[in-house]
Amino acid sequence: MSAITTALPAWVLGLRDFQRLGLINKAVIDVTAVDIPFIAMAKNKTEQKERILRQSLLLVIAFILAPIHSTLIARAMSKYVGFVGDAGKALNKTLMQLSYKDLGNLESFQTAVSKLFKTTLNQPLPELLVKNGLTDALRHNILKAKSHFLRLDLAVEGVLFSLIGPAKVMFGEWLSGKKQFTGEFGIVDQSTLNKLYDKQAEAKAKKKPWRQFLQQHSTLFSMALGVIVPLLGATALHRLFKAPSPTGVSRWFQQHIAPHFDYHYSQFIKVFKGVPMLSDGSLLLMCILMQISELAAARSKREVKEVAIQRSLLDVTFFFGIPAFMRLLSGSTSVQGAMDKKIEAAAAKGIKLGEAELKRIGKVAGWTYGVSYLLAATAIIGSIALGNHFTRKGVRDDAQKLELKERFLTILLKPLAAPLPRPNMNQWATAGGKR
Questions:
Q1: Is position 33 within any domain?
Q2: 277 strand-pairing partners
Q3: Is residue 213 part of a domain?
Q4: Which residues contact 430 (CB under 8 A, 6 or more apart)?
Q5: Residue 234 confidence (pLDDT)
Q6: Using the 8-state DSSP alphabet, how is residue 98 labeled?
């Protein structure tokens, strides 16, 4: 593959490596394809400020704080691997980089350790491993360390993600001075919007006490979920590996689900070398927890609808959009995979590819990634526009219903409100005199 690499343009190699950067890859896509249109398409200036805060918190929590606390927690949990001393501590942290799929049995574990040092790190096998051997006990120790790390790190991240929804709402209230969804401002006149929220408050007051209690403490419940779900998830993941020879569903989860919760360790950027970064599976789980917190903190049924539609479509496109479009256009989800498929197809036909052909294959794969990115970004813009549309329509429809109801009540109650005609007493007196 070295000959292929030297034949590829630098920008193709850059895109290929960019896809492998995990969290950094997602950060760049988030800023360029999500944050900019999400903020630019705000329905008014107040909502725009609220969205800026939301996206800033998301960026800081997921892409700045996460690598910091994951590094500290990984360092603390790596002690469960079992080696001591300076060399042992360094080895513990290195072995934490092994994927879950490599820890399913002793044979795959031994192969993965050899590959990690000789291929990925380009180092000889450490003396401690040569001396102590790659045993099943060591494999279980690494699983324990990884599970403790995942459990605690995602619990911290889960709480932080669950705070984004309430923080956004508090900021919106501080900006506007109103306990109303800022995305609804300006759609109808403020007096009509106030009436809609008065009606909403009356409906809440009529609910049963236990439902009022749940609504009042929904933020606390969503934060609790932010801790409980990661704890239970990591524990369940660890239990999958306790069976000596898993088969069926357990084996499938080991090979296909568990690796999505591995941490990525960048080998390309020195600043992030050795830093554990959240994988797509963990990020997706955090986004689900964040969406639950936003739904719990929503200020109106219309905001609930916008968040449910907009965030669901946006998150699906954010995580799966580019890979899906890549597979549709090239048969693979990555730049490297797209190139490999073309090269393998040529080899199967007995065609020997020269440098020019390899360069062309690389360029096609690179442009395919670019087109996939643009298609995903367009889908994200569409999901934002759809959410905005439903909110505008919802406010106008509810305002129209309220107006019609008020008109109907006015017409219905008008005869009752009109004063009765006063009797003509002089006429009665005249009539009495004649009798």
A1: no
A2: 264
A3: yes
A4: none
A5: 86
A6: S
Residue where the block lists tokens 């690179």: 366
What pLDDT is attached to residue 78?
93
249 and 221 both lie in a single domain:
yes
Tokens of 330: 């090239």
* Residue that finishes a domain, picked among 267, 299, 331: 299
Map residue 87 onto helix, strand or coil. helix
Query: CA nearest 342: which of 357, 328, 324, 355?
Result: 357
Domain termination residue (choose one: 276, 299, 322): 299
Report if residue 288 sits inside a domain.
yes
The span from the CA of 219 to the CA of 292, in Å, is: 9
**In terms of domains, do 295 and 313 share one?**
no
Please state, in angstroms and rounded to a whole number, the distance separating the CA atoms of residues 322 and 421.
76
Alpha-carbon span 35 to 304, nearest angstrom: 20
Q: Mean pLDDT for the chain?
A: 86
The DSSP call for residue 264 is E
Residue 108 within a domain:
yes
Q: Structure tokens of 352?
A: 């020997």
Residues 6+ apart with CB under 8 A from 224: none
pLDDT at residue number 388: 96
pTM, whole model, 2 decimals?
0.84
Is 50:175 a contact under the CB 8 Å cutoff? yes
Going by pLDDT thresholds of 50, 70 and 90, the confidence category of residue 2 is: very low
Percent of the chain whose pLDDT exceeds 90: 48
| Count of other CB atoms within 10 angstroms of residue 195 | 17
> For the chain, how long is the longest CA-to-CA vector?
134
174 and 46 in contact (C-beta within 8 Å)? Answer: no
One-character DSSP codes across 296-312: HH-SSHHHHHHHHHHHH
Residue 380: domain span:
1-23+303-417
How many structural domains does the chain have?
2
CB atoms within 10 A of CB 158: 28
- The residue whose two tokens read 């892409």 is 63
Closest by Cα among 45, 50, 61 to 299: 50
The pLDDT value recorded for residue 241 is 78
